[in-house]
Write a structure and sequence with these properties.
The protein has 18 helices and nine strands.
Length: about 500
């Protein structure tokens, strides 16, 4: 039996989802169960033989593949909703529902996610309906969670005719329909108090506080980093970050979650018993992930942190790539469409690159520096690792996704990251402290907010300066995909070979 069985099982589960989504093959429970049962029966007959463990391993992989494919099929059936045989998408319709996610404002309009409850049929009778609708209205409209809305307008499906459901970004995020600038027939605010409502209210208050204590547009940058609200970042600034290959800075990501998880866990372990502090840390991480909108990159980092904490509690050392594969499989189980989401792919690939390549490249860099007459080699190596190697490892692993999704790469991205990555923890910590102070004692929040603004503004100016340099390279999506895959395959080979050599040395296998 190979090592890291859960890693292979998780990867095969994802392969099953991808196969079921990319093909028109329909997989039946019965055939899958029969085939797996036969393999397990064959294993029982050969249990004591040399290849018995291999048969068991292959049986587990086949079972995981079938489970992945069946999970995709059942999810498609579950999320395929309709709002009545007598209503055709594209026609004028009156609907009624409850606000599931409060209005997300932008510079020109606001979008609200509505949980559809019923619609008015041509005979004037209310009929039950289900699904989620994203409603776009002028920016001065704003609805809180649980508000009841009656709207009249044209509603379309978020999935094009004859297209796979995962091809729609809105469908991947659980939205079935969209309605642009309808008439608001009735609005009934809710007095219902729920955890979700309190969470969104706190987020809205925090966003308003940031707008008052930090000058624009850095207030929007901090809102994206701290709260996951990036819809009002100016277009010129978003374009500058895109051109320099640093757009990941604008939104909350796994880096933010990892930083918060580390600080919270370290503090709670000092003031509380270890197990209690660990479980409270898990709760805080999960709550913060929900607060900022639970994007795929945030969920991935949150799941990895939550999985890692119990591993330490039971005395097991968390293995990064192992945990990453399990996390990806868990997320795909709850929403198989995520496998085709660019944010999910970039997050998983970038994390894989950091876990797989960082130590290897750092060791090679250290060996190079040792041959040079450079003062403070340890500090230089640490700076290069944090500012260059980690970013390079992430971008190399994500190269195939970047080429296929965006069809261009920034040649100066590593250089820009060298300048701005060291600033990110400072920006996040100062911004977070300013936000808390501003919500408790405004004058102090304003003072700390100005400090955060200076660092964030300096960060923006670096990006704007480099964005004027024409270094964006267009790349063929198919060719870029295979080039990235080949580069990663070659580098992964050398990394695994180096690890095998290290573990084969006397005294290193147990370290």
């Amino acid at each position: 039996m190979p090592k890291l069985v859960l890693l292979w099982v998780s990867a095969t589960f994802l392969a099953g989802i991808i196969t079921a989504g990319a093909t028109s093959i329909t997989i039946e429970w019965s055939w899958g169960l029969i085939l797996v049962a036969l393999l397990f029966f064959f294993y029982r007959l050969n249990k004591k033989k040399k290849f018995g463990g291999t048969v068991l391993f292959l049986s587990l992989l086949l079972a995981a593949f079938y489970c992945g494919a069946l999970r995709y099929q059942s999810f498609v059936e579950k999320t395929t909703v309709g709002f009545g045989e007598n209503i055709t998408p594209g026609e004028m319709i009156t609907i009624q529902g409850i606000v599931a996610e409060p209005t997300q404002p932008s510079t020109q309009y606001g979008e609200t996610v509505l949980e559809l409850h019923r619609y008015l049929d041509p005979n004037g009778n209310w009929q039950p309906a289900e699904g989620k609708v994203v409603v776009r209205l002028p920016e001065f409209f704003g609805f809180r969670v649980h508000t009841s809305l009656t709207l009249q307008g044209i509603m379309d499906s978020t999935v094009k005719a004859d297209a796979k459901p995962y091809t729609s970004w809105l469908k991947r995020n659980g939205v079935d329909y969209r309605m642009f600038f309808p008439t608001v027939v009735e609005e009934i605010p809710s007095e219902k108090i729920t955890f979700k409502g309190l969470l969104y209210s706190f987020r809205n208050r925090a966003y308003q506080t940031l707008q008052t204590i930090v000058p624009y547009p850095e207030s929007e940058l901090l809102a994206g980093i701290l709260l996951g609200i990036d819809s009002r970042i100016p277009a010129y600034l978003s374009e500058a970050y895109r051109l320099t290959g640093t757009a990941h800075i604008l939104a909350i990501s796994g880096f933010n979650i990892a930083l918060i998880a580390g600080m919270v866990t370290k503090y709670l372990n000092r003031v509380l018993p270890y197990r209690l502090g660990a479980f409270i840390s898990m709760g805080i991480i999960a709550t913060y992930a929900l607060l900022v909108g639970a994007q795929p990159s945030v969920l991935r980092a949150a799941w990895m942190a939550i999985i890692a904490i119990p591993a330490y509690l039971i005395g097991r050392r968390s293995i990064g790539i192992h945990t990453l594969a399990i996390t990806a499989a868990i997320m795909a189980f709850f929403n198989p469409y995520l496998v085709w989401d660019a944010s999910f792919q970039l997050s998983v690939c970038a994390t894989f690159g950091i876990l797989m390549y960082t130590d290897f490249i750092t060791q090679k860099t250290d060996a190079f520096l040792q041959k040079k007459d450079i003062p403070s080699k340890e500090l230089v190596l640490e700076f290069i690792k944090n500012s260059v190697i980690i970013a390079f490892s992430a971008q190399l692993a994500a190269f195939s996704v970047l080429a296929r999704q965006f069809e261009e790469i920034s040649l100066i991205s590593p250089l820009v990251n060298l300048f701005i990555l060291p600033l990110q923890p400072i920006i996040m910590i100062l911004g977070g402290v300013a936000l808390v102070c501003g919500m408790v004692f405004y004058p102090l929040g304003r003072l700390v907010g100005l400090l955060a603004w200076m660092i964030a503004a300096f960060n923006d100016q670096i990006v704007l300066l480099f964005s004027t340099v024409p270094t964006t390279l267009a790349i063929n999506p198919v060719g870029g995909f295979w080039i990235g895959l080949g580069l990663n395959g070659v580098l992964a080979y050398f990394v695994l070979r180096e690890r095998k050599r290290a573990f084969s040395q006397p005294g290193r296998a147990g370290s």
